[in-house]
Amino acid sequence: MPQPPKRPRKPTPAAVKTAPSKGELHPRNRHQGRYDFPALIEASPELGRFVITNPYGKPSIDFADPAAVKVFNRALLAQYYGIKHWDIPDGYLCPPIPGRADYLHNLADLLATDNDGQIPRGAKVRALDIGVGANCIYPLIGRCEYGWQFLGTDIASEALASARAIVAANPQLAGGVELRQQANAEHIFLGLLQAQEYVDLSLCNPPFHSSAAEATSGSTRKWRNLGKLDPKRKLPVLNFGGQAAELWCPGGEAAFLKRMASESAQVAEQVLWFSSLVSKGSNVELLQGWLARAGAAEVRILGMSQGQKQSRLVAWTFKNGEERSAWRQIHWR
């Protein structure tokens, strides 16, 4: 019996790849070079009691101390971004700010490619932060750097309560950051945007572990590699903190990215560019395949680097160049 002809496999959308030199931040990143600790302490005096001298004789902080990391972040936000009031509940993710800033600068460059090379600034640009977290870090930096409007979403009510407290405590954020709960923890985009609601870009730092045990093991391995695993000293279970939804989900990063690719196709009319950090290099090719099956028109892969840490930013759109130009005329006029 003759076999039916095989359906041709849909080609993977062409991916544009760029990468910085190892250890280099984006040129517009404010966190180049060594930190000026006297200036940081002037902006946030409480940092003074956490400053230590590292093995190279330079001032630093003990990154194994969650309290020190939190106060350090508070000082960075005060000095570089004018955020005078910032705090998170104990145990929540305390993010590395330079890397988060790099993500936003790369997204700004991405939008510039659809705007004759000019970065669109101000309230005409609206960004959707998937998993805004208790720290609300992307809206804080994005508002300061580019004046964009932000919609921050999360499945955790406690995280949103913390983010709302941060926004309320900093008057310059008024009217620029909206926070919304995703009612269905099984969904990422579905059920989130209202009818006739449009955003220019989405960003996400997905959970990359598949279980709490894996997250704990990964943290222990990091301390060992850094030479900080001292059996006489009690170290935090998770470096930089983090709750379950921030660090792990069933299936880990790959499963989350697969769901994101599928759901993004279902809200493609309402979003210009989607994006996500991808921690594991092997997941980039998987994501490209899922995006091809979902019908993405274009995929961009951007390398990001902070010190020894290498990561990838993957951005995709379901609109071709002509459709993106029309979007600009409608939404960015």
Automatic annotation (TrEMBL):
Domain of life per record: Bacteria
UniProt keyword terms in alphabetical order: Cytoplasm, Methyltransferase, rRNA processing, S-adenosyl-L-methionine, Transferase
Compositional bias segments (type: Basic residues): 1-10
Similarity comment: family membership: Belongs to the methyltransferase superfamily. METTL16/RlmF family.
Functional summary from the UniProt entry: Specifically methylates the adenine in position 1618 of 23S rRNA.
NCBIfam families registered for this protein in UniProt: PRK11727.1
Protein name as annotated: Ribosomal RNA large subunit methyltransferase F
